[in-house]
Structure formats: structure tokens, C-alpha cells
Automatic annotation (TrEMBL):
One Pfam match: NAD_binding_3
Catalytic activity from the UniProt record: L-homoserine + NADP(+) = L-aspartate 4-semialdehyde + NADPH + H(+)
Entry EC no(s): 1.1.1.3
Taxonomic placement: Bacteria, Bacillati, Bacillota, Bacilli, Bacillales
Stretches assigned to the Homoserine dehydrogenase catalytic domain: 134-312
Name this polypeptide is given: Homoserine dehydrogenase
Domain Aspartate/homoserine dehydrogenase NAD-binding: 9-125
Source organism per UniProt: Pontibacillus salicampi
Assigned protein family: Belongs to the homoserine dehydrogenase family.
Alphabetized NCBIfam families for the sequence: PRK06349.1
Keyword set includes Oxidoreductase: yes
Length: 326
């Protein structure tokens, strides 16, 4: 049996998925004991030149994707729509879904997870929160007995890179942002990152996973990093502190609460040494105490890595379930 794969979106992440499936093809096939075939790639502009083999259908029509067998859809589109519509279509078609779309999943994740259960398929969303850092699976599978008291995280690699440049190299915000854009860490319009919306969506996904609920979005304090000046950085350095953009999720009186804001951290804080495009989560639990997970948080390959790890997980899990009934 060959696993048939469709990629929705062929921007930075979609290209990273394609590259990873090719460079690690033999390794993945060995792990799954079956080959993988990319059958379709959904794009915005079919006229754009792409170095893709003729055997892969490149289309702008989602219905053409499902006119042939599809076992799993890797969704790497930006924004809520049409991503939500396409993911819903994939689930109803009977395909597993792996997504990197944090805005879409923050809005519709609970509904999509229920829909997936109804259709006996699985949704992987590791890539929505901390790039290549295995946060979702750690919380979902390894912290089932522990009660999570709070989560603090640096979950936007772009903002962290900018603050690191301002701290280590005394760059202005504008110069640090330009460097992030030149390295491909920031978009031409960086608002989603530097104004905190990307971190906000990730915090809502983490809250849903940890507490099976999200805060009232209107009550979440949200502040980006545009207001952090070189003078602010210098004052923090003199005090032995660093500015970090931190998402905090916690239970208060039985309900989740969250804030996303710049904070000055002391050197004994677990997020103090998280620099560059690294992401990290510090999770406070009732039994283990504090654990910290860190790893790359920006760039196409860390995100693609998380998606491919989800792909392996779902089919390995499927094989195990099938073996139980043999």
C-alpha cells in the first residue's frame, strides 16, 4: 500500500514539507514500511514556475485534489479561509489532516477535532504552536496524570529574534526587524508576529489542549514588541534582565486566563536564555513541578519537520491499531 499525500499551500512551509519528504524519503519509507506518494499540490497561482515532477498534479481547484485517492492532507495555508473549508472537505473525504495553520486552528480546532472523530480520521497540529519543538504531543501524551497549573512560553521566533538582536547587538527595533526579514524570519508585513497575534493564536491552541477550553478572547491582554526601545533594552541589561515576548496561560478560579506581552525576565527564569529564533515553553505541573521544552521556532524546515513527525505518528498508530485486530 502506498500512502497518498496532498499538500495544500506551497509557500515557505509547503515547500519545506515537499523538500523534507524528498530528502528523507527512504528513511520515512523504512519507518512506515510503505512508500509515500505526493499526488497533488494545491497552489494559488498555477502559472508560477515550480521545479516539480510531471507526476504531481498542481492545481488551484480543491475538488481536483479529491478526484483521486488521498490518505492524508498536509495543510500549510495562511489564514482562516479557505483553509477551514479545505480541511473540513478533507475530513469529510476520509483523509487524515496535518496542519501548520495556527490562526485557523485557534478558531476552529475544537470543531475540527470533533468532526475528525465522527469520520474516524486524525488531526495533527504540532506545527501550529512551537515550530519543531514537540510541545503538543508532550502535553497530550506525557502529561496525562499531571495537572497543568500554568504555561509560559516564547512561541514566536520572529519576535524573539528581534529582541535578541536588540539585546546582543544593540540594534534598533527597525534594524533588527530588517535583519529578520532578510533572513526570512519575518514577512514583508510583520504585523502578525511583532504585534503578538501569532503568539495569541498559539496560546489559544495550548489553552484548549491543556484545559479543554479557551479564555474569552476579548479578555486576553495582548501587546506586541513595537514599543520596546533601545533604552528599554539597555535598562534591562543593567539590571541583569532580558526583554522577552511571553505568552502566559493559567487556570484561575477554574477558568483559563491568558496574556501575551513583553516581560523583563531575571536570569533565573527558565526562558531567560532562549535567544534567536528559539521557542520554549515552561510548564508548571502539580506532580513533576516545572519542565521546559525548547527548540527551533521559525523557518520552513522546523515547521515541516513537525508536520512530517505528525505524519509518521498517525500512520504508525494506524498500523498498531490494525495489528491488534489481526
Amino acid at each position: 500500500m502506498t500512502i497518498k499525500v496532498a499538500i495544500l499551500g506551497f509557500g515557505t512551509v509547503g515547500e519545506g514539507v515537499w523538500e523534507t519528504l524528498h530528502t528523507h524519503h527512504e528513511y520515512i519509507q523504512k519507518k512506515l514500511s510503505t512508500p509515500i506518494e505526493i499526488t497533488s499540490i494545491l497552489v494559488k497561482d498555477s502559472n508560477k514556475k515550480r521545479n516539480l515532477p510531471d507526476s504531481v498534479q498542481v492545481t488551484t481547484d480543491i475538488e481536483e485534489v479529491f478526484q483521486q485517492p488521498v490518505d492524508v492532507v498536509l495543510e500549510a495555508i495562511v489564514g482562516k479561509q479557505p483553509a477551514y473549508q479545505y480541511v473540513t472537505r478533507a475530513i469529510e473525504h476520509g483523509a487524515h489532516v496535518i496542519t501548520a495553520n495556527k490562526e485557523m486552528f485557534a478558531h476552529y480546532g475544537p470543531h475540527l477535532l470533533e468532526l475528525a472523530k465522527e469520520h474516524n480520521v486524525w488531526i495533527g497540529y504540532e506545527a501550529t504552536t512551537a515550530g519543531g519543538t514537540p510541545v503538543i504531543r508532550t502535553i497530550d501524551q506525557m502529561l496525562q496524570v499531571n495537572q497543568i497549573k500554568s504555561i509560559q512560553g516564547i512561541v514566536n521566533g520572529t519576535s524573539n529574534y528581534i529582541l535578541t538582536q536588540m539585546t546582543k547587538h544593540q540594534n534598533s527595533f527597525e534594524d533588527a526587524l530588517l535583519a529578520a526579514q532578510q533572513k526570512g524570519y519575518a514577512e514583508a508585513d510583520p504585523s502578525n508576529d511583532v504585534d503578538g497575534y501569532d503568539a495569541f493564536y498559539k496560546a489559544m491552541i495550548l489553552s484548549q489542549l491543556a484545559y479543554q477550553d479557551q479564555p474569552n478572547w476579548d479578555e486576553v491582554y495582548l501587546e506586541g514588541i513595537r514599543t520596546i526601545s533601545s533604552q528599554d533594552i539597555d535598562k534591562a541589561t543593567i539590571q541583569g534582565q532580558k526583554w522577552k515576548h511571553v505568552a502566559t496561560i493559567e487556570l484561575r478560579h477554574g477558568a483559563p486566563r491568558a496574556s501575551i506581552q513583553p516581560m523583563q525576565l531575571n536570569e533565573d527564569h527558565p526562558l531567560y536564555n532562549i535567544d534567536g529564533v528559539e521557542n520554549a515553553l515552561s510548564i508548571q505541573t502539580d506532580l513533576l513541578g516545572s519542565i521546559t521544552l525548547s527548540g527551533p521556532g521559525a523557518g520552513k524546515l522546523p515547521t515541516a519537520s513537525a508536520m512530517i513527525e505528525d505524519l509518521l505518528y498517525v500512520f504508525q498508530k494506524e498500523r498498531q491499531q490494525e495489528a491488534q485486530y489481526v
